[in-house]
């Protein structure tokens, strides 16, 4: 029997890579998405007889109830992402990122599996020099972080679930986002050859979008031994400050100039380093280094010329 997967928000940045990855691996995939950015990111998936797509709202109970009837696995990707978009639509952020996921948890049968991406931004501001593990306290400092932390609680309260606390994702995707930190800095380095940095010592962890798709496959294939836990998913050698990230980018774009502003502040106050040992101990290994991803982005930005590829 082919395993049937229901993905909400499957046409977004992560979904546009994950959906074709799952189809190519032999899964049957149904996507619910409102395609709010007018994207055609799943056009290539239409060749698969095992692909089904519904233009709809993941917050509609009748729609979710109907699609849950045939699903073995649910992957709730639908979310409003990023501080600017979340602050612009706070009600939409809470109802999509949190309430819709809580509804899925209530409607799904105990046998149905849920694998959900959340964010390691839930760690907020970490302790200096101390790695955040899955046991570290969650102190989200943005509306996005708060809604994701609450959604994760609902998912992990079930037996048949796991969550992936994703590092800041980077890399090319059919539904591209230029406003993510690595993607943004490479874009500026490529086109403007300069960036002004606020609070350049703030550290974050990073992960390539194709490794995000890979970790979902890993979770599906090792579900029984991995279920019931959250997993940090990031690169162990990429707990970098913004200044360190810029230095890495300059290896590939030598004309890139970056300056730290003595005044001003970054609206995103996250600052932490993360341990990814739990997911690595299950046998998962990322394929994409930061440097490989930067080179991919440089090729991508040779094609893309404008900023319609962001959430705001």
TrEMBL record:
Organism of this sequence: Synechocystis sp. (strain ATCC 27184 / PCC 6803 / Kazusa)
Entries under InterPro entries matching the protein: Epimerase_deHydtase (IPR001509), Lipid_A_modif_metabolic_enz (IPR050177), NAD(P)-bd_dom_sf (IPR036291)
Name listed for the protein in its UniProt record: HrEpiB
Pfam families in the cross-refs: Epimerase
Domain NAD-dependent epimerase/dehydratase: 5-234
Origin: domain of life: Bacteria
CDD domains per the UniProt record, alphabetical: SDR_e (cd08946)
Gene3D superfamilies: NAD(P)-binding Rossmann-like Domain
């Amino acid at each position: 029997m082919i395993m049937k997967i229901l993905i909400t928000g499957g046409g977004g940045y992560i979904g546009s890579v994950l959906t074709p990855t799952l189809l190519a691996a032999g899964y049957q995939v149904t996507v619910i998405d409102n395609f709010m950015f007018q994207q055609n990111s799943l056009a290539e998936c239409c060749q698969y007889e095992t692909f089904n797509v519904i233009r709809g709202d993941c917050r509609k109970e009748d729609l979710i109830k109907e699609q849950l009837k045939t699903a073995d696995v649910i992957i709730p990707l639908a979310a409003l992402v990023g501080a600017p978009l979340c602050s612009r639509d706070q009600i939409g952020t809470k109802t999509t990122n949190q309430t819709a996921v809580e509804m899925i948890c209530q409607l799904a049968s105990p046998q149905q599996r849920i694998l959900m991406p959340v964010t390691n931004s839930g760690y907020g501001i970490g302790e200096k020099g101390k790695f955040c593990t899955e046991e570290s306290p969650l102190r989200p400092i943005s509306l996005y972080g708060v809604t994701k932390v609450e959604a994760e609680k609902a998912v992990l309260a079930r037996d048949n679930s796991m969550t992936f606390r994703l590092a800041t994702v980077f890399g090319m995707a059919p539904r591209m986002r230029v406003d993510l930190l690595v993607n943004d800095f490479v874009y500026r380095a490529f086109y403007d050859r300069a960036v002004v940095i606020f609070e350049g010592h703030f550290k974050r962890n990073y992960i390539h979008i194709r490794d995000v798709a890979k970790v979902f496959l890993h979770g599906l294939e090792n579900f029984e031994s991995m279920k019931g836990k959250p997993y940090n998913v990031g690169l162990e050698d990429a707990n970098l400050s913004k200044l360190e990230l810029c230095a890495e980018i300059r290896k590939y774009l030598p004309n890139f100039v970056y300056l730290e502003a003595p005044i001003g502040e970054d609206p995103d106050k996250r600052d932490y380093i993360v341990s990814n040992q739990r997911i690595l101990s299950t046998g998962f290994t990322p394929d994409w280094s930061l440097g490989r991803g930067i080179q991919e982005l440089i090729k991508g930005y040779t094609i893309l010329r404008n900023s319609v590829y962001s959430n705001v």
